[in-house]
């Protein structure tokens, strides 16, 4: 219950989300607005008949991130503020790793929301009802897994596995492919480099 | 108050000069925006009519020309803004501009698209200061106990006299106590307090509008200077004292005097005269936060919530009704081609004044009217309605050295709006169990309201009140989160259940 715990857990839980926000959203005002207004998706879809694919993906990503951040924040911020105050963790027999576990769980929930958002929007657009069903079921599964909360091992590991699977699925849904991944990692992606060049 | 300012101050010679360069153009008279703009222009020259489309075509010309023209003080802010945004944003994701423009089934409306994109930038330019003000207020509330203590528990020591003064003056406005045995009585008292407060505000606003109408600029000027003196010196001294007490830091009187003196003097200069824009913005945010803290401390609990609700209704009425005082103020200012007390309004733009050759001294005074922090009256009158002002950046080195009124480009929001937003979020942070979920929910609600207000503004293009939508959302979110969501989330978090 020290400042170290506070900052450590805060960055574990919200670091990646903050990084995603800073690098992909903060520079573009329209996306920030999407983040705040989140549910404008249907309305925006209706006024956008021509160019749908890229913008919908962007909207899906931003919505997912928005929902994820709100959900993570609401779940974790009170716990975080309690961690600054005096106290002993686990004095009544609970696990002493309460804060760490909550932080990791929050992180995985945020990332899962991002991936679910992308998959869900895509499923809605292409009318792939199976995708919607899988998203719903995995969400329920992840929540149900948290019911066995004292057994952190099973809880966290399986949730992270689900997150990785969802991440891979979202990557392919969003238009990525093994080839583009290879280009990206080897810094051979010309479009990306040119894009960065121009924006400077 | 958010307003679309354009060319209140451009002089005739200037505009004809611009026109000669083929730069001056206004949106087509058919558009509501064009109609509104045309009435404001002081120029006697014929406005060259060109709509956004043609201006966009000419924007393909090399950037230096655009920049130069812009620097020469374009009259039509929006075109310049679009040019600049065109230049800087070509490489952005094209998809973005397609997302929210146009009408279903019709081809992409360039005008709407650009309005939206331009509007989005302004929305962000307002999010940042509003967020900063709220952060300052919430941080102070959470750490400095003074601002959540009720009047009965004043701290001991030298601070007592100063702390008593605002309490006494504010209790004049809210004389009915809330320490009553029954709920009904308490509710009645808070409603009565609200009625008194609102009538004071209305009276002050009408007084101010009357003064403005009869051109008593010196009186207004003096009044505002007195108020900002009090805010910048007295309230800062109290605030600093409380913060030092909280963190148990000792500071001797000479250092304190030096600090407060410098802070206050630079603040007066920045707000009432000239100064770097960022510094002026920072000072306006700080005084809004100080004022909000005073409100949070000295208004009784239930009265504060009822007052927030009543103020938004008043704002709506005052700005939109034809005989509303604020609307009359705005219209009078427009008729006289004067800016509306710029110092009372947060502006996120660049402001230069190069020379004041042709402006009459009275409008000069109006241009630099300082912020009036005096309790509830003035900023409510100026603070309430909001328009995003869209000016042009002026030209620092103009060859003529004439007018050069600055035209700022950016958005303006009245300080009263900042104050009441911060009061709402601060009260959400102060009351109850100190729950962060409630505070965050109110914060998001206010930002959503602000976004929607700016959207409406882009649609209607006239003065709009900034308070009603945000405060309504804020109140709804506060009460529902505090009573419904908080117990639920508390249980979930304590058992580490995630939904």
UniProtKB/TrEMBL annotation, chain A:
It is found in: Membrane. GO terms for biological process: Notch signaling pathway; protein processing. InterPro entries: Aph-1. It comes from the Eukaryota. GO terms for cellular component: gamma-secretase complex. It is a multi-pass membrane protein. Keywords: Membrane, Notch signaling pathway, Transmembrane, Transmembrane helix. The keyword Transmembrane helix applies. The chain crosses the membrane at residues 59-78, 98-119, 131-148, 154-174. Potential subunit of the gamma-secretase complex, an endoprotease complex that catalyzes the intramembrane cleavage of integral proteins such as Notch receptors. Component of the gamma-secretase complex. This is Gamma-secretase subunit APH-1. It comes from Callorhinus ursinus (Northern fur seal). The lineage of its organism: Eukaryota, Metazoa, Chordata, Craniata, Vertebrata.
């Amino acid at each position: 219950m020290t400042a170290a715990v506070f900052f450590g857990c805060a960055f574990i839980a919200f670091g990646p989300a903050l990084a995603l926000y800073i690098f992909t959203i903060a520079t573009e005002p329209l996306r920030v607005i999407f983040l705040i207004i989140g549910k404008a998706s249907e309305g925006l879809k209706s006024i956008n008949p021509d160019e749908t694919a890229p913008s919908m993906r962007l909207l899906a990503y931003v919505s997912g991130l928005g929902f994820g951040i709100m959900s993570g924040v609401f779940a974790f911020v009170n716990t975080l503020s309690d961690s600054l105050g005096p106290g002993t963790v686990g004095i009544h027999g609970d696990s002493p790793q309460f804060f760490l576990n909550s932080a990791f769980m929050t992180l995985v929930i945020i990332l899962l929301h991002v991936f679910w958002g992308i998959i869900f929007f895509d499923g809605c657009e292409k009318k792939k009802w199976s995708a919607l069903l899988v998203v719903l079921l995995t969400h329920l599964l992840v929540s149900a897994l948290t019911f066995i909360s004292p057994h952190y091992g099973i809880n966290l590991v399986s949730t992270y596995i689900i997150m990785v699977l969802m991440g891979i699925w979202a990557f392919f849904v969003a238009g990525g492919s093994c080839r583009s991944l290879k280009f990206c990692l080897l810094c051979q992606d010309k479009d990306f480099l040119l894009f960065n060049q121009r924006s400077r | 108050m958010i307003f679309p300012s354009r060319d209140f101050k451009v002089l005739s010679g200037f505009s004809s000069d611009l026109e000669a360069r083929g730069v001056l153009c206004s949106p087509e008279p058919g558009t509501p925006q064009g109609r509104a703009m045309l009435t404001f222009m002081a120029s006697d020259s014929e406005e060259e009519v060109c709509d956004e489309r043609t201006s966009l075509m000419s924007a393909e010309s090399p950037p230096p020309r655009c920049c130069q023209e812009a620097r020469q003080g374009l009259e039509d802010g929006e075109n310049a803004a679009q040019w600049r945004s065109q230049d800087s944003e070509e490489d952005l994701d094209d998809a973005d501009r397609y997302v929210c423009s146009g009408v279903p089934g019709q081809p992409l409306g360039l005008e709407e698209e650009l309005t939206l994109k331009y509007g989005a930038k302004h929305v962000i330019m307002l999010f940042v200061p509003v967020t900063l003000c709220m952060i300052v207020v919430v941080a102070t509330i959470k750490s400095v106990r003074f601002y959540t203590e009720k009047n009965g528990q004043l701290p001991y020591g030298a601070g007592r006299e100063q702390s008593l003064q605002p309490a006494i003056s504010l209790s004049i406005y809210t004389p009915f106590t809330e320490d009553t045995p029954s709920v009904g009585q308490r509710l009645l008292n808070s409603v009565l307090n609200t009625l008194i407060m609102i009538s004071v505000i209305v009276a002050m606003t009408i007084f101010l509008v009357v003064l403005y109408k009869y051109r008593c600029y010196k009186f207004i000027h003096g009044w505002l200077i007195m108020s900002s003196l009090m805010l910048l010196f007295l309230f800062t001294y109290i605030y600093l004292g409380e913060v030092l007490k909280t963190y148990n830091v000792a500071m001797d009187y000479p250092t304190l005097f030096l600090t407060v003196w410098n802070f206050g003097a630079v603040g007066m200069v920045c707000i009432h005269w000239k100064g770097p824009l960022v510094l002026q913005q920072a000072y306006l945010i700080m005084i809004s936060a100080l004022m909000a803290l005073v409100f949070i401390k000295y208004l009784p609990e239930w009265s504060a919530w009822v007052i927030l609700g009543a103020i938004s209704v008043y704002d709506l009425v005052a700005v939109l009704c034809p005989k509303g005082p604020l609307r009359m103020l705005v219209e009078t200012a427009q008729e006289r081609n004067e800016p509306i007390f710029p110092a009372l309004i947060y502006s996120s733009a660049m402001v230069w004044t190069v020379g004041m050759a042709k402006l009459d001294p009275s409008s000069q005074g109006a241009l630099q009217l300082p912020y009036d922090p005096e309790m509830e009256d003035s900023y409510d009158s100026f603070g309430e309605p909001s328009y995003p002002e869209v000016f042009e950046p002026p030209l620092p080195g103009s060859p003529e050295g004439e007018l050069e009124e600055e035209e700022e480009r950016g958005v303006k929001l009245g300080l009263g709006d900042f104050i009441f937003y911060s009061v709402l979020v601060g009260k959400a942070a102060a009351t109850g169990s100190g729950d962060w979920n409630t505070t965050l929910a109110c914060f998001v609600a206010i930002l959503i309201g602000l976004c929607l207000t700016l959207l409406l503004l882009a649609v209607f293009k006239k003065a709009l009140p900034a308070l009603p939508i945000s405060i309504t959302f804020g109140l709804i979110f506060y009460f529902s989160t505090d009573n419904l969501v908080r117990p639920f989330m508390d249980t979930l978090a304590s058992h580490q259940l995630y939904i």
